[in-house]
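residues and backbone:
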Amino acid sequence: MIRLALWLLGGVMLGGIVHIATVLLLPAMATQDAYSRLAPMTPANAVTAIAPPSPDKAVIPFMDPAFAVSVCRYDISEGPLKFSVPVSQAYTSVSFYTRNDVPYYAINDRAAGRRMIELDLMTTEQRNDLPENEEITAADRLIVESPTTTGLIVIKSLAPEPGLLQAARSALAAARCSPAS
């Protein structure tokens, strides 16, 4: 009886280890992640509008049809990136993801407290290379440090009514994502 219990305990433990390892390794092994799906249709360092989801097709999974969505696929290996988006009437959010779909920063229009969300995106090394200037302080500009040189910026604008969806898309059309000069 004890032998059977030990075999069952060993089987359950082995099953648990295999399950946890599979759950942790699967995202890293996926070939059709968001970055890979968006790469053919979005140029680097430019904002691209994403088509609204339909019942049979959505570029990004679990998209809400009440939001207008744009994406900036960035590459900051050559230098920092300047990003700006005007806030919409209802709600605007900006989320930053690494190349492997790990979120590392998010901001919305209420947190920005302005009519425009503006920031500089750079790596830690690029930020360390910035000259020490007394006139430019952290209050003057928002600097986001990316853990990787490539990734995605997802911009969402809420349309509280279907008739306001075009206004939300217009707000996102004015978004800019370009290398800093």
